[in-house]
Design goal:
The complex is a heterodimer. Chain A contains 11 helices and 15 strands. Helix content of chain A is 34%, strand content 24%. In chain A, helix 1 packs across helix 11 (300-315) and helix 8 (243-253) runs parallel beside helix 9 (271-280). Chain A is of the alpha/beta class. Chain B is of the alpha/beta class. Chain B is built from 13 helices and 15 strands. In chain B, the strands form 3 sheets. In chain B, strands 1, 2, 5, 6, 7, 8, 9, 10, 11, 14 and 15 form an 11-stranded mixed β-sheet that branches. A two-stranded antiparallel sheet of chain B has the order 3-4. Classes of the chains: A alpha/beta, B alpha/beta. The interface between A and B is large, with 83 and 74 residues.
Chain lengths: 343, 412
Amino acid sequence: MSGIFIRGEGAVSPAGWGVVALRDAIARGDPLPVKELARPGWSRPLMVRTVPPAAPRPEFISHARLRRASSISHYAVAAALEALGAEATELANGALRLGIVMCVMSGCVNYSRRFYDETLKNPATASPLVFPETVFNAPASHLAALLGTTAINYTLVGDTGTMLQGLTLAADWLMNKLVDGCLVIGAEEIDWLTADAVRMFSSQAQVSEGAGALYLRREPGPAPAVELRAVTDSYLFCRNQTRALAAQKARAELGAGSAEHLLCDGLQAVPRLDREEAAAWRDWPGVRLSVKQTLGEGLMAAAAWQCIAAVDALRNGKFASANVSVVGCNQQAIAAQFERMRL
Amino acid sequence: MLFPVPRKAESSRVVITGAGIITALGRGWKENAEGFRVGRAAVRPVTLFDVSRQRVKVAAEADMPAPLPRTNLREHRLQRMDRAARLLLVAAHEAWQQAGWTVSEDLPVVLGTTSGGMSLGQDYYLQAIEAPQSRRLQATRMLHYQAQRQGLDLVEAFGFQGPITIIANACASGANALGHAFELVRRGHAQRVLTGGYDALSHLVFAGFDSLQALSPTVCRPFDAHRDGLALGEGAAVLALETLEYVRHRDAEILGEIVGYGASADSHHLTQPHPNGDAAFASMSAACDSAHLNPEQVGYVNAHGTGTPLNDSAEAAAINRWAGTRARMLPVSSTKFSIGHLLGGAGAVEALVCLMALRGQWLPPTSTVETPEPACAFPIVRKPTEAKLEYVLSNSFGFGGANATLILRRWS
């Protein structure tokens, strides 16, 4: 036993607001519909998967810190609140030291683009309200303010494998009793700038947005409990370690698997992007779930959805163990293993 | 395996065996130590981008060495590196050389930055708007803009294999990176870690601080009663950390020791600290707890001290409360008047300033203070001063309420 448990999950995705919407979309398996996103200077729009409007509008959006925040903060907060569930009240009582690990790749790109655009037009009128929202840790800050937590709070930046590094950071804080509970969140928002950038590497990849949150504690909580069993080393893509080799090493650390085991991989049905990960897990004997094929390339949010899909499947008793494989775009291959506890 | 890791029964002592720095004061330990010791200001007119329409037109620009230090990086890679990556490479090279480290598979990198290769992001956007049909260099800009690329550059430059962790906690990023690296070594997750912080000046960030009217239109004067804002700067500092046992095994020179780290979150406001400095107090207290020290044992505080009215009054309140009766005799200064606020690089650079102070047994002055802020119960170091230092404390606070404190110890 590792002694670190997943106590709650939360998700916002193109499937909707909440884990149930995510679960249902994955169960259906059909790719969610894409929308057109205008790209300045082009007649042909970009195709993306956006988060549908929340109905009803979440109450937290009226919080002073969140009224003007961009969508990445709203997604992160919604996912975090769902993952925390009733334990948010423990926070309000001051009985819980809650750490936050926010993981982003593209981050607060809407306001960054908007602020730079204003700066280029006339720096004298660039909005001082927008600039602070461009900072990578703005979503984590808003979440901490909403929850009233003053415990340690990191924003990690990197490729999508960073989400699994975030789990190890949270586990470390919990093991060393720096915090009583810890949220690990992966979040992204869509902007034409990001969609345009991803298109340069593959015209088939469809960018999406949202957030996923896992709530970790040392105590297993009510059954069915799910444990974070392992996170492999982070295998970098560098001169003497190709993406293919890195993916193979990550896979090798978690063992062969069996027919009762689930694999939540990052394949998105784009052969050029999938090649190395597909090869590394070619002989996987169990069931596979490729959430990006339904939800799109949500960058850090997608890595979080992979974890949530794995934990959710374990919680629902479908599998005894689940692996998550993340072969990032330009940094690392890494994998994690979750297990349903027999208490 | 990153998790689970075997738990060590006892914590390791974490020593510094390499340190590299580049700021507007110069390149390397010697030039910077002399500048900090005498309190030299290096703020000057901005030349890197057009500031003609900005309210403020000065910052602390670093002079980039040419050529860059020789490493395993090939020429085409060096050419693709932006200013931030180059600053980081220069600092890392000095630290690496000083530590005497060699190629290794198992060496984590922990970096702090606020904006990574922002200038490439700006170039990407400009071309996307001005020449939307052109893809020329856009993929390279997109890849090299991301902070993990700068980490990977270090990995390739010196021949090791990570993992890379990048903490983006605004202006506390550098201190958080050093703190996290310290914890990795202390808890036995790694025997050695290369860590640091970096940021380069960019138009977007400069305009952002100008729009907030956070930049001083006169002179940056941290803890002065008439202070009116900060100066921005750029640079990098990188430290080589290792366990004491590992250093003894290879007989390397020890420059100093990190003994404590604390972090907290201030949820008062996105850009303003709580006026009482509650989170700063919590961060300093946590660092002392981590080091098993009390404020009486700390000989100097290198404050976050941005020179903005709100930061300095909140930090003063926090130091007064944390130090208690010790405050009357506790020397405090800020070096941001000299090299500007380095944002993601600030915490790492200022920890290195503390290391220099410990090695040289001097206090870095804040030379621009004329009328000390009355709320400061502590003496502000305003002139070059010799001192007997055993422990020093460095504060870093950031947008979003990220607070981090490091405590360093002289090696003897």
